[in-house]
Amino acid sequence: MKEVVRIKEIDEKYIRQIMNKLALHEDSINSRVDRYKEFLDTPIEYYDVFLKYRDLGGYRYEEAKLKFITPRRIYDTPLKVDLTNYSIVYIRLPNNRYYIHVDPKIKAEVDTDVDNTIDLSKEHNSLLVKDKFGYLVDSLYTWGTKISVKEKQLLTKPILIYESFDNVEPANKLSIDIGDENNITIYHVIEGTPENLFYNIDLSLGNSVQLNYRYINNLDSSSILFLRQDLVIRRRSKVDWLTADFGGALVRSKRFGYLIGEGAELTYKGAIFGSKKQYFDITNYIKHIDRNSRSDVEVRGALKDEARLILKGMVEVEKDISNVRSSLKEHTIILNPGARADSLPGLEIKSSNVRVTHSASTIPLDPDMIYYLMTRGLNRTEAGGLIIRGFYRGILEKPLEKFDLFDIDKVINRKLGE
């Protein structure tokens, strides 16, 4: 049996061989096979409005390699981090190693027993959005991590998830389950040099949860990332979700927010900075499934050199719910003529008594602003950098001000200097 295999070489027989090697129960194996069949049957894009943009920059996903490995736990962290600053620390390292630290004063678990799919509840599971590569990961992942926090833990310290990848990686799955009445901050950073990285991340919240989730993609500029993130927000829960996509040669990220409880609220802010020949295919999809729910989505992108961004957004309001408020904003600055951005905001409203708005813009760097700053002694590069930092500041500065393991200014300076 091959340890490294291309996607085009995978079939049902191979999946059963791998899963038998992992000693999974027959029901789990059959579930994986069903997911693989859904992968084969599902188009790259589900919604017709997005189909014409399914080109992935000439990338042939059938040639992508996956590796099947056995994770190995270590008990000393090589990362310079003060463990007393965090309630939970999960560190993923090259060469199949990982480190876990859990504050003994809280009731939380970190293990490798991961459910195969996110659960919206029986009456809502049919509303999950189809995704071809999400099904692939659900069928083939061999690195699974689950973080569970019991109800009413009153965490005063954040959770740190730091992952450094190398070479060919397995399909990965991370599941985070947060019980009722918790107030939690999560910092999640992915770095390294994976050839291909397929990754599903599921976050499921109980009732009356407040979550601040900060995700940062700082992969090497040669890496290819296929990411799906699902977030389930239940009754009276509020989420402040930040994502920053800076790394990768080709990044295809699909993010889904399901507001399934009355009074659920989501604030989502996204930042994207592309340089050289980076290609970003980003989808942000929000589903309102219960009444009195709120969502505010804002994505800001900046592109230079020959970078390309396809930015797709969708707000969907299900039938027979009322008092829904949502806004969707997508704004991109083009730093030079070689870069290109396409924004596709969409709305699908199936109910009345809702207020949903959207806006999108793609504009060049304002020459008048450049000229004004140059009259104050800055050169053209410095002036452009100052404008870009101001463009991102409203999204990135406050959410990351207490996170000392990632210097956002350093990353922006590097991107500007490339």
Structure characterization notes:
This protein has helices at residues 12-21, 26-41, 48-51, 132-140, 367-375, 380-400, 408-417, and strands at residues 4-6, 65-67, 72-73, 88-93, 97-102, 108-111, 143-149, 159-167, 172-178, 183-194, 196-205, 210-217, 224-233, 238-245, 250-259, 265-274, 279-288, 294-303, 308-317, 324-334, 340-349, 354-364. It is of the alpha/beta class and 418 residues long. The protein has one domain. The chain has an eleven-stranded mixed sheet with strand order 3-5-4-8-10-12-14-16-18-20-22, covered by helices on one side. The protein has a nine-stranded mixed sheet with strand order 6-7-9-11-13-15-17-19-21, covered by helices on one side. α2 (26-41) runs antiparallel to α4 (132-140). The relative contact order is 0.09. The mean pLDDT is 88.
* Terminal Cα span: 42 Å
Number of strands: 22
Low-confidence stretches: none
Largest sheet: 11 strands, mixed
Structural shape: globular
Tally the helices.
Answer: 7
- Within the largest sheet, what's the order of strands? 3-5-4-8-10-12-14-16-18-20-22
Percent helix: 10-25%
Provide the domain count: 1
Secondary-structure-based class equals alpha/beta
Strand portion, in percent?
A: 35-45%
Rg (C-alpha, Å): 21 Å
Topology, element by element:
Layout: E1 4-6, H1 12-21, H2 26-41, H3 48-51, E2 65-67, E3 72-73, E4 88-93, E5 97-102, E6 108-111, H4 132-140, E7 143-149, E8 159-167, E9 172-178, E10 183-194, E11 196-205, E12 210-217, E13 224-233, E14 238-245, E15 250-259, E16 265-274, E17 279-288, E18 294-303, E19 308-317, E20 324-334, E21 340-349, E22 354-364, H5 367-375, H6 380-400, H7 408-417
Parallel strand pairs: 3-5, 4-8, 7-9, 8-10, 9-11, 10-12, 11-13, 12-14, 13-15, 14-16, 15-17, 16-18, 17-19, 18-20, 19-21, 20-22
Antiparallel strand pairs: 1-2, 4-5, 6-7
Helix pairs in contact: 1-2, 2-4, 5-6, 6-7
